[in-house]
Amino acid sequence: MTDPRTVVVVGASVAGVRTAQALRTEGFGGRIVLVGDEPDLPYDKPPLSKQLLAGSWSEERIALLTAEAAAAVGIELRLGVAAQRLDVADRQVLLIDGSTVDYDAAVLATGAAARPSPWSATSGVHVLRSMADARRLRNDLEVDRPVVVIGGGFIGAEVAATAHALGREVTVVDPLAAPIGRVVGREVGELFVDLHTRHGVNTKFGLGVESVEGGAGDLTVQLTDGSQLTAGTVVVGIGAVPNDGWLASSGLLVDNGVVCDQHCRAVDAAEVYAVGDVLRWFHPGHGEHVRVEHWTNAVESAAVVAHNIAHPEDLRSHRPVEYVWSDQYDWKIQIVGRPVGATRHALVGDLTSADRRGAAVYTDDSGVLRGAVAVNWPKALLLCRRAVGAGASFDDVVAQLDRLPAAVAAPA
Amino acid sequence: MPRLMADVEACQGYGNCITGASDAYDIDDDGKVVLLTEEISDADRPRVEEAARSCPVNALSIED
Ligand SMILES: Cc1cc2nc3c(=O)[nH]c(=O)nc-3n(C[C@H](O)[C@H](O)[C@H](O)COP(=O)(O)OP(=O)(O)OC[C@H]3O[C@@H](n4cnc5c(N)ncnc54)[C@H](O)[C@@H]3O)c2cc1C
Ligand code: SF4
What we know:
The structure holds 2 protein chains of 2 kinds.
Chain A: E1 6-10, H1 14-25, E2 31-36, H2 51-54, H3 67-72, E3 75-79, E4 83-87, E5 92-95, E6 100-102, E7 105-108, E8 112-114, E9 125-126, H4 131-141, E10 147-150, H5 154-165, E11 170-174, H6 181-184, H7 186-198, E12 202-205, E13 209-215, E14 218-223, E15 228-231, E16 233-236, E17 240-242, E18 258-260, E19 272-274, E20 279-283, E21 288-291, H8 295-310, E22 323-328, E23 331-337, E24 344-349, E25 358-363, E26 369-375, H9 378-390, H10 394-403
Parallel strand pairs in A: 1-2, 1-7, 2-3, 7-19, 9-16, 10-11, 10-16, 11-12, 18-20
Antiparallel strand pairs in A: 4-5, 5-6, 8-17, 13-14, 14-15, 20-21, 22-23, 23-26, 24-25, 25-26
Chain B: E1 3-6, H1 16-20, E2 25-27, E3 33-35, H2 45-53, E4 60-63
Antiparallel strand pairs in B: 1-4, 2-3
């Protein structure tokens, strides 16, 4: 099948790579150009705070696309060169090296960047978003000095667990009393606080950071209650911001992400699509625009966009059930749906000790299952994932979970 | 016909493959992937291949 069209995909991480691959799977026979600013071949990010940082996986293991695999399906790679500007009227992407790529359809997959540290310390303060970040952090974690992690969200908690496993003394600081509570609600969030303390990691929750001073190996973190922490290395995990600044001159509507319709098409240019972390789209199930920073959303939006480009006569909507996982200490955590909007939850199994499995399931006044958090229990999560998608009743799901074999979880 | 392959050791029970193709993949009580069929038709291939590619640990492949 040949197609006279050219698709340019900007951003060569999971959303961009999966879009390019899925275009071929969907039978698109035209030209595909994949542009990425990072010099490394495309790699996957979730292991950066887990197996790669721990040293148990190699860099090769997290490759998303090799040069051979790209060539085999006719994906042209333009790596190590950032897109500088999108010219919607002339359908052209301008790259930083002065070259241009003409397109018939453009897919914006530039993801997000770690929110930078606002503190003044000159060295030894890390964020974690890229392979280069992970290499630098891994290097500093070799030094046997205490580690302070600022931000107790997913990435902060994972880095704390990994640094602890590497033998470092670790303290996590966050202004919220139960940081993961932002996602799972306050009460279940407390169980995630216990998870740190049970493993001997210190928490300073409910406290802000006043300043970080010094340099690598000798840093001082000043907290809002007047206390101080000393550290060899500080890791800042305070969220991410979408990489949409390069689109400022494009005329596209950008508002904390590229604003798209339910088919992931930019609201003001139907041949421009967005995928992954940079996508803010109208979710027909929720009836509102959302942006989601989860791996599975990147892959699912990539499949929708590839389909919509290859088959414009049969447009698909992107209406996923939110899903994210996180590995912290001996917990494999999986979260589905929107627990945080719920008003009531039930616990099934056991969420208080290391070798058990358990789940929290959530509902609101409607009595419909709104979300679930499962620990070391994929079968329960899968059940809930299907149930959220189907709009099943909370009581039915709790009864079904009670019937699952809830034995001691298999060792990871 | 295309054949499904699964690396059960690598599987972490994320379940993405099942969301994409519940006729081809499931998981057992230990959270490991189970293939529900060995072979798929060429017509099903795009959908099942995208499901396989949604596995976060690359545990799934399709061979001709
Ligand atoms: C350390 C870490 C751990 C994570 N763990 C999990 C997890 O356990 N589970 C989970 O569900 N999710 C996890 N995530 C989130 C998940 O990795 C992201 O949702 C996913 O990477 C989003 O993919 P993306 O391709 O949209 O964006 P990104 O991965 O951000 O990639 C965007 C790419 O575009 C490039 N780019 C940016 N601007 C330009 C430009 N102007 N020109 C060219 N290229 C550009 C960037 O350099 C980057 O390569 C984690 C993220 C991180 C950082
Ligand atoms: S997506 Fe991968 S890890 Fe998840 S259940 Fe399927 S094979 Fe296992």
